[in-house]
Amino acid sequence: MKLCYLKAAVLLLNQGHLVVAAIPSNKTSWQQYVVAPQNRKIVPSSILSQSGNVSNADALVSGNGVTRLSRADVQTTFPSWPSGTTANASSEAAPNTDNGVPRTYYASNAIDGNLTTFWNDNTPAQYPDTLTITSPTQVTLDGVTLESSTDGVPVDFIIETWDGSNWTEAGSITGNNATRCRVPFSQNITTNQVRLTVTQDQAGSKGEYTRVTELWPALVADDSAVPEIVLDFGKNVVGFLQIDFASGSNNAPGIQLAFSETLQYLTSVSDFSRSDNGDTITPGTDQIAVPAAPLNWTDTYGCTYNGNQVCADGIHGFRYLKISLNALSSDAPYTSPSGFVDINSVSLNFTAYLGTLSSYSGWFECSDQQLNEFWYDAAYTNEMVIDTFLADTVDPRNSASPSLLGKQVIFDGAKRDRDPYVGDIAVSGRTAYLTHQDASNAMLNVLADLAEHQSSNGWIPPASINNYTLPLFDYPFWWVTSTWDYILYTGDIAQVTSYYPNLQSVLDTWAPSVTDNTTGLLSKPSSYGDYAFLSRSGIVTYYNTLYVLALSSAANLANALNQSSDASRWQQRADAVSQAINENLWDSASGAYLDDSTVSTRHGQDGNGIAVLSGVANNTRAQSALDYLANKTALAYGNAFMDDDSLVSDGSSRVYAFTSYFDIQARFLTGNADSALDEIRRLYGWMAQSDPGVTFWEGIGANGSAYEGAFTSKAHGWSTGVLPALTNYVLGLMPTGPGYQHFSIAPSFPKDVSWARGQEATRYGVVYVEWSMENGTATVSFTAPNGTVADVTVPKGSEVVLDGTVVWSVDNQTVSGVPVQENADSITVSDVSSGQHTVVSE
Ligand SMILES: *[C@@H]1O[C@H](CO)[C@@H](O)[C@H](O)[C@H]1NC(C)=O
Ligand SMILES: *[C@@H]1O[C@H](CO)[C@@H](O)[C@H](O)[C@H]1NC(C)=O
Ligand SMILES: *[C@@H]1O[C@H](CO)[C@@H](O)[C@H](O)[C@H]1NC(C)=O
Ligand SMILES: *[C@@H]1O[C@H](CO)[C@@H](O)[C@H](O)[C@H]1NC(C)=O
Ligand SMILES: *[C@@H]1O[C@H](CO)[C@@H](O)[C@H](O)[C@H]1NC(C)=O
Ligand SMILES: *[C@@H]1O[C@H](CO)[C@@H](O)[C@H](O)[C@H]1NC(C)=O
Ligand SMILES: *[C@@H]1O[C@H](CO)[C@@H](O)[C@H](O)[C@H]1NC(C)=O
Ligand SMILES: *[C@@H]1O[C@H](CO)[C@@H](O)[C@H](O)[C@H]1NC(C)=O
Ligand SMILES: *[C@@H]1O[C@H](CO)[C@@H](O)[C@H](O)[C@H]1NC(C)=O
Ligand SMILES: *[C@@H]1O[C@H](CO)[C@@H](O)[C@H](O)[C@H]1NC(C)=O
Ligand SMILES: *[C@@H]1O[C@H](CO)[C@@H](O)[C@H](O)[C@H]1NC(C)=O
Ligand SMILES: *[C@@H]1O[C@H](CO)[C@@H](O)[C@H](O)[C@H]1NC(C)=O
Fold it and tell me: 770: closest CA among 782, 761, 778, 760?
């Protein structure tokens, strides 16, 4: 015994030295990874491009001086041919109906003075296409101007005039790409016929056609180009844009704003606007009528005139902003597309949770810089979706709910999906608790509101959208797990007690009503959807494993409220459902759980991941299923959420960080930390290095693209699972009883991470943990506040020492009184009381 103490003391000294060597002494070094803005007023970080008549654009970044956009008057009256002029073409497309509007494509449309109509040839990619104009009287021309439709721009063409006996070339153009193309003649020509011969067109969306809107008998000034400035805010941000206008010309010049999270989808129309979700007050750009007098303009939802003119969307989530001097013709006479505008400054009023250094109640740092970056990028992604629920900022608009107005909530996405969905909170809630405890009400407000909107049949709605009627099948169970998470991470049992009857009702009334009574498994009616509106019905592994997870969470919650008979009833049901899943849904040929009992080819990341998390899969099946998924679904940008394309056409190329979180946790839980980190590095590395950088996306599609194109949200709280995964499994800190009253420290000691440290605020005080691993010696040190108890798990070596006392050794030289549990390849020292402790395993 004495020998052991001596040996332990020596070890500790060594360890003390090693710890100093391995873990940097600066305990605030985690702060270097924080990416949130310093304050709510955000100014652009750079000008990416400018075009047209723009001066001093840099002032928008430097703050020095005034930026001017100006544009000459746009011509609205045009030259015309003498009355009686005719036009003939080599061919004419037949009249048809386009979007319900009847259209013609006659040659005469090119001389009718109407900019809506055009001549369209009928021979795509065949040349030449000719248009001959014949005037009843002679005209004198110094040139002509060809106005074409964007979908049929002539690239190479010549203009000839008739000199009485011959056609003579008067001008030729090659390589044109402009819709308005001037063809000057070298001298004035008097003629009664002009012929256009096209030998190449641009390939448009409808094919390679010539589409001439007008061929004017004169040189028409090019409309001066639309002045544009593209601003980069440096990272994804969310809030209300503000523009401080110094002045404008006295014709109410128009400013149009197009927002985008990525450069790929930055066009003259926002990557997403409310017009994409049914609210069409804007055509995808926000409009401003700039007055001559100074104006501080804030992007506010609504219209400045008549309820339908000069309109804006209000809040935006974006990184890039295109500012143009232009106006919609439908906004006349309140704005015009010309004049000048002087801008003092452009800034964003950031409305979401401001993650300053002092706002971090919990933090994380380890020896791997990239993992640290992922942790703080996830924190910022989540901050972007914590905001006040306002009728004018939710999306879609029909998500607005009187019972949530004015409350702090956690939305799904920043630019889009601005409605709190409880399945998303299963991930984003944990991220919030682990970073900013003072945002806990955001989760409570949503959980409580959804409970208050429970149906009489026990079903709990996923969100406020459609007046709480969107029929999702999985989200009632996420309500259960998220409610337990709220208690685990905050300890705030009192707030949740009144919702206990809702918990009983969802599990004891609704779940049985959708249970297949032959197997005891949930059977989803086709009228319900799920997290991705997947067309799976009947007995599906994901819903059932999630059901088991919910039942176990509910049992824990019931125990916390001293409802032990419910607890044991729900745990028994969890066990019975687990057994039924194993009997009905295991595919022994593949060594993984089937996605759907009726489809023998498909295996899902969601069902298999949660099978491990919920304990449905024993060790053999867990390892087999995780190996199967790693082998079948790994992509450069994460693991696909299905192993084939039978459910959705991109099943094996679509990646959800949401479902990947289950997979990643499952790998950590089963001793596959290296495979978990491999998945994390592919998935989060891909997103972190792709535009817009930092924030994590709603979903990833083929080849690592945004899975729903411009519509995809690039900042989605449900994709922040890397943060709880790193805290829970790399640092190893996890609450196991309400508010960390009981918690575990069980680092996974990944091969390529040599140390980690971090802390969490709890209702009892701060828990601080650090560990290092060097030359096979693991050292875990922690400080726990009064009222808490910890279980510490370290690798099984030759002995384990707690605060200098050997508490376990291979040769059984243990000190009594300390409960120690020997696992397959680890040792758990249980019920370590509050205070400062060090556990060493070598
Ligand atoms: C510790 O790290 C933080 C963040 O990188 C830095 O701001 C601070 O200066 C460092 N302190 C010391 C004493 O090096
Ligand atoms: C221009 O053509 C369109 C389409 O045929 C028609 O609806 C419109 O009334 C015309 N405009 C004028 C001024 O004739
Ligand atoms: C050429 O024709 C244009 C337009 O018809 C006219 O304005 C201009 O005066 C003419 N120039 C000469 C040199 O005749
Ligand atoms: C018309 O072209 C032909 C052949 O190039 C030429 O012989 C003839 O002289 C031209 N006629 C006139 C009026 O220029
Ligand atoms: C059109 O051509 C000009 C000159 O080559 C080029 O600068 C411009 O980018 C092109 N525009 C488009 C839309 O292709
Ligand atoms: C606009 O706000 C700025 C400060 O942000 C202030 O200096 C300026 O006077 C304001 N202009 C008007 C017209 O209120
Ligand atoms: C920013 O927006 C918030 C929320 O709408 C508002 O309370 C605040 O006054 C705004 N700040 C500025 C400077 O306009
Ligand atoms: C939403 O549903 C509730 C309860 O059915 C009803 O009282 C309320 O009028 C509905 N609200 C709207 C906007 O339809
Ligand atoms: C299973 O039994 C319950 C009653 O325990 C019933 O409510 C439910 O409808 C049954 N399920 C099916 C699919 O018939
Ligand atoms: C897991 O379950 C399967 C099927 O019942 C069984 O064959 C296997 O031995 C079990 N593995 C463990 C580790 O219990
Ligand atoms: C693939 O599965 C085998 C076991 O069948 C396993 O040894 C291997 O590590 C797996 N591959 C990956 C990439 O996980
Ligand atoms: C750990 O191993 C390294 C490399 O072999 C060695 O330099 C170091 O002294 C070792 N540390 C201890 C405590 O043995």
Answer: 782
